[in-house]
Write a structure and sequence with these properties.
367 residues, D-amino Acid Aminotransferase, Chain A, domain 1, 3 domains, 29% helix, four-stranded parallel β-sheet, homodimer, nine-stranded antiparallel β-sheet
Chain lengths: 367, 367
């Protein structure tokens, strides 16, 4: 199964969105070429790697056929049914993260039960909507992302029509995220804790390192991430979304794959999350995660009313020559995550301004 | 011809070696996917991009068919006959750099005649081996690279069996290189001047910026590169190899494509040479070329006696966690350029040592 020319292993990723696309870019440096299982030939990663199988991530036959052609299988998303992940492993496929860990990134109830049992700080939650005072947050147990599957429920509001849990609204000082990579051998490496800026439940900006976070909370966040990775047996990159609240930290959500909160690391860190994820699932030594510069800002590009990248890309490159632009090969649609921009610098405000200016130009906002 | 989904242009590269491979990595960020004309499906870039035509760079039919499927055509190497480059342009294809410029990267005699006419400093040279005292350097007019096509000719030595020019041996203080990108609109941007370290005529190491170069010579080298790009009408990235000699600079050779002396820029500079080459041939605004850190060192990986990358890659990653490894997808052979390693740092000696240690581990040298 190894590559015939180089003898290097074949890594397969189930799902072919932008995370797989950027993982392929990292794979090329390591002498690899990512193999992807894509829903469609138009998926972001399928457009840029030669090694594409078309098939649904919920189709056992497609999964098995794909997995048997790889040395290691990993994921671009959480949508492979957990039982099928377990069945792949039982059939002899090396799958990272495994079903036992991945469950906690797929099922918000299971995650809260497990983290609670580990005494890891999380907001108060319940299966019973009567257990919490309104307004509270309701979250779909499965499948939510980018603000979808999350509702603020006040007096008189209906409850969601899907399986959900409810969670207290906490006073958020800042939203944070921390990523850690873990190998099957148990090695771990964290990146700096980042601040994430959300708008309508969607991450629009990431500042690395988090500019207003104490050393104590930084160390606590990183220790939490390492502990969660170890207790849950995560292999690959784990992203832990956190709330900084008065007096401490709460874990909000987990993702067990490269994550939007880590895109800054492509330019900003010695080893980026995509390469590190590959190293981790291959049980190769992990790379240095130090940042190159005092500040790295990543801003997401969401489609605007009249975004036309063929017109706006040159304008954006002219507007901010220090911007590193990443486009995902998608047709522009309102609100769709089309790419991101990263800027490195010395000053938080100035670097944020440059990243925002580049994204506004890409979106085609009027001056 | 533009991409149907994004409306972005299609860039084609003739040749599919490691330069095309790394250009594809950069293209993906810009929302593109490089189209390549490969000699073989095993070529480094053909392994990692889905958009591959197989054909010889000397075959007019293959060239024309390939070029007509692209918005812009550029080059991974200098081996397309100049007349065919001119014919492509005449047939309506946008080709950068054009035949008129590319000639000076293909023909060492034409280059020396032209630079001499421009009063650009070059070593004394001649077509006549009797015109210079021996020992002198003989260089094949066409097709030399990595020390091939270059001979030291002393008393009694035979002259080369190919078309050649002869050149005086100069006292080299340091070997340098400077790259500049130029757009069809005439915009130019230089990177810092780098020092190149050669062994047996092959570049083994690049230090950016050149650590022992005066401000005056740095400015002179960059001004020379810009002037050459403008006078010769280069579009894309131009690499100018230079000799620092007692009292000044001599131009040694030109390349009109991404070049080994610029690989450091992938991690080391805000905009790397591969992305900048794409921007330039597309007539898009050029990116910032500042380095991120005080020192960037790139070391080439040449195959050793018993290089086995599948074994040595994990060992190298363990040996130097701060190394960024780039492998080209080639089978290991003695002396073959298999990849490179880049390390960023603050101190020249320490950063060089780390890069060398990583390359030695990759080569599989005994400890």
């Amino acid at each position: 199964m190894t590559d015939r020319t180089t003898g290097l292993p074949v890594v397969g990723m189930i799902g072919a969105g932008q995370l797989a696309r950027m993982t392929h870019q990292a794979a090329v440096g390591l002498g690899l070429s990512l193999r992807v299982l894509a829903d469609s030939a138009d998926d972001g990663a399928a457009l840029v790697t030669p090694d594409v199988e078309i098939g649904a991530a919920t189709d056992w036959d497609a999964l098995e056929r794909f997995a048997k052609s790889c040395d290691v299988v990993t994921f671009d998303h959480e949508h492979v049914p957990n039982a099928l992940v377990a069945a792949l492993a039982s059939s002899g496929v090396t799958v990272h993260p495994g079903a036992g860990a991945l469950l906690y990134a797929q099922d918000k109830r299971a995650m809260r039960e497990r983290l609670g049992a580990l005494d890891i700080p999380i907001p108060k939650w319940s299966d019973d909507p009567e257990a919490l005072a309104r307004p509270f947050i309701a979250k779909a147990v499965r499948g939510g992302y980018d603000g979808k599957g999350v509702w603020v429920v006040d007096e008189g509001d209906p409850l969601p029509p899907v399986d959900y849990i409810v969670e207290e609204r906490v006073t958020i000082v800042h939203e944070l995220a921390v990523q850690v990579a873990r190998t099957p051998s148990g090695a771990t490496r964290c990146w700096p804790v980042v601040e994430t800026v959300q708008r309508d439940g969607i991450c629009v900006e990431v500042i690395a390192p988090a500019p207003r976070l104490s050393h104590a909370l930084t160390a606590e966040a990183q220790a939490l991430a390492v502990r969660i990775a170890e207790e849950l047996g995560v292999v690959g990159v784990l992203a832990v979304e956190l709330f900084e609240v008065p007096g401490g930290l709460f874990v909000n959500e987990l993702a067990m794959r490269p994550h939007n909160s880590g895109h800054w690391s492509i330019e900003g860190s010695v080893t980026d999350q995509f390469e590190q994820h590959l190293r981790a699932v291959l049980d190769w030594p992990l790379g240095d995660t130090r940042p190159h510069r005092p500040v790295t800002v990543m801003a997401n590009l969401l489609g605007g009313e009249s975004t036309n990248l063929a017109q706006s890309l040159p304008a954006a490159l002219a507007a901010v020559p220090s911007a590193s632009v990443h486009l995902y090969g998608k047709a522009a649609r309102l609100g769709r995550k089309l790419g991101h921009v990263t800027v490195l610098g010395d000053d938080v405000a100035e670097t944020r301004e440059l990243a925002q200016r580049a994204v506004a130009a890409l979106r085609g906002d009027a001056e």
